Amino acid sequence: MKHSQLIVTVARDTPTTEAVGIPVTSDKSVPADLGVSRAQLAAAGFDGKVGQTLVVPSSGKTTLIAVGVGEGNSATAHDLRNAAAALARTASKHASLSTTLASIGRDNRAEVAQAVTEGLMLASHRYAALKSDKAFASKLKSVVLVVESKSLGSAANGSRRGTIVGEAVCMARDFANMPPAHLTAKMFADRAQQVASSTGLRVDVYDKDKLIAMGCGGIVGVNRGSVNPPRMVKLTYRPSKSAGKGKTSGKTKKSAAPHLIMVGKGVMYDSGGISLKPSNPSHAMMKADMSGAAAVLAAMSTLKSLGCKNQVTAYLMCTDNLPSGSAMAMGDVLTMRNKKTVEIHNTDAEGRLILADGLSLAAEDEPDAIVDIATLTGACAAALGPKMCGVMGNDSKFIDQVLTASKAVDEDAWQLPLERSYRRMLDSYIADMKNVGGGEAGAITAALFLDEFTGGTPWAHLDIAGPMWADNDAGWLQRGATAYGTRLLVNLAENFRR
Ligand code: BES
Ligand code: ZN
Ligand code: ZN
What pLDDT is stored for residue 148 in this prediction? Predict the structure, then answer.
């Protein structure tokens, strides 16, 4: 199943299309094709800033759209991703578009073409399945990126990569936007199975009985209040050109390719459980509390077509969190996969409980590093807002790789300290720990909780509670579930070094 309807191609000659996007700087001369002067543009409120667009009235059949690209030729690939997104929105009433956006800017052609393709695809995406009004979806179906012949090859390759990544992000957004009853843990696991088989991944699905047998008390405990059983999905990607020719020594087989494991929080709906969230319409977005798992699935789906050289494994931890007569209660003590015991002090701190089992299993696989991604704490959203996710971990070299990936894809991340002295806030009089700290440093105590299950493996944790949702369209972000972190994970998986 396709999640993006847009097809982006690269060509040397300008084809005939319904609309044309013409890049306009804020300082250099206005392209003659536009047929207007700088003064006329300025009078219409257009000054060429990145992300500005203006439909220029013209007598011909083709709609001309001015797209701001900032000063001179200084636009970065990130600027051009946002410019392309703005163009896609302005052109959304037209079926076809051509633009030279991918032939400008200071970054290399492949990178720019990838970013422009992503911007076009991400800003054209709508979760339209439940809208009767078919005009809700973008009409844009095809975009041709016109580039000089000498960069045709690299631009085509970049655009191909952009299409793979763009489709993955749209997929993650579709899953995260789906209402809870439309996507239960079982349905999500079924969809993950389809995705895996069409993208060259091995997939293993674990049902409730298996999870109980495996001692996964966290995910089983959280699931107790629900009539919908949990699922854990394990995805395995191995690079094809067997990089695994390295020496295998002793009992533990170390593949030559670096091995990364990604763990995603897949809370299909978070009501808070017995610690019920107050009734607030904004909590409808708690259907997207599986955004971490969606981002991991989406990122995994790209690896084969992108030719990722690393070995990557994923655990999607899927269940909802609901109150009922059988739900876990405050004071209950859960035994997690790694045998540590957890006293429940708030059933709404459920994400860490399901991640605990996923991280324990990941650590047992002895990878070179583990990254988890989760809509984990309101505290992180309160601290950093919607523009960036929080990053914490136990290994500065690996955290730096995560931060580098974040910069490369323009999904901002900010490191918070894993302040070990706060660990005592999790102390329990009856069990190894409580599932919540005190009132302060909620993002950090959540990470300290997760740290207990990593077995010392290099690990980084992404708390995406802030940026998982967008209230408005802006740049490549589209209102609703954002699938934040998908592109970061793709970049990390490709560039990971042990
Ligand atoms: N899923 C929420 C966190 C969240 C909040 C995600 C806002 C996205 C937007 C998580 O399960 C949760 O409820 N966390 C609690 C933890 C608290 C009880 C320690 C929170 O942040 O309030
Ligand atoms: Zn919760
Ligand atoms: Zn949650």
Answer: 97
- Please name which ligand lies nearest the alpha carbon of 346: 1
Predicted pLDDT at 255: 61
Q: Are 488 and 411 in contact (CB under 8 A)?
A: yes
- Residue of minimum CA distance from atom 22 in ligand 1: 378
Alpha helices, DSSP H only, in 227-350?
291-306
> How many domains would you assign to the chain?
2
Nearest to 260 by CA among 167, 340, 157, 366: 366
409 and 444, same domain (yes or no): yes
pLDDT of residue 256: 87
> With a 6 A CB cut-off, is 436 part of the ligand 1 pocket?
yes
Residue 487 belongs to a domain: yes
Q: With a 6 A CB cut-off, is 388 part of the ligand 1 pocket?
A: no
Distance, CA of 269 to CA of 276 (rounded, Å): 12
Indicate if ligand 1 lies below 6 Å from the C-beta of 320. no
Q: Is the same domain home to 342 and 380?
A: yes
Whether 85 and 187 map to the same domain: the answer is no
Rounded Cα distance between 90 and 98, Å, is 13
**Residues of the domain holding 80:** 7-167
The verdict on 475 and 406 lying in the same domain is yes
Atom of ligand 1 nearest to the CA of 270: 1
**Which ligand neighbours the alpha carbon of 390 most closely?**
1
- Is the domain of 160 the same as that of 247? no
Does 144 lie in the same domain as 234? no
The three-state secondary structure class of 403 is helix
Catalytic residues: 277, 352
What pLDDT does 246 receive? 46
- In-domain check, residue 173: no
Q: Residue 60's pLDDT is what?
A: 85
Q: Is 414 left (phi over 0), alpha (psi -120 to 50) or beta?
A: beta
pLDDT tens digits along 206-216: 999 999 999 99
Per-residue pLDDT tens digits for 287-328: 999 999 999 999 999 999 999 999 999 999 999 999 999 999
Does one domain contain both 334 and 466? yes
The answer to whether residue 223 sits within a structural domain is yes
| pLDDT for position 334 | 98
C-alpha to C-alpha distance for 147 and 100, rounded to whole angstroms: 6
- Ligand 1 contact via 442 beta carbon (within 6 Å): yes
Query: Which one of 142, 167, 192 terminates a domain?
Result: 167
pTM over 0.90: yes
Q: Which residues of the chain carry a pLDDT beneath 50?
A: 243-252
Which of 275, 287, 320, 348 has most ligand 1 atoms within 8 Å of its beta carbon, as the pocket-test mutant? 348
Residue 172 domain flag: no
Cα 405 from Cα 409, distance rounded (Å): 6
Cα 374 to ligand 3 centroid, rounded to whole Å: 8
465 C-beta closer than 6 A to ligand 1: yes
Domain stop point among 167, 195, 224: 167
Note the pLDDT of residue 254. Answer: 58
209 plus 243 within the same structural domain: yes
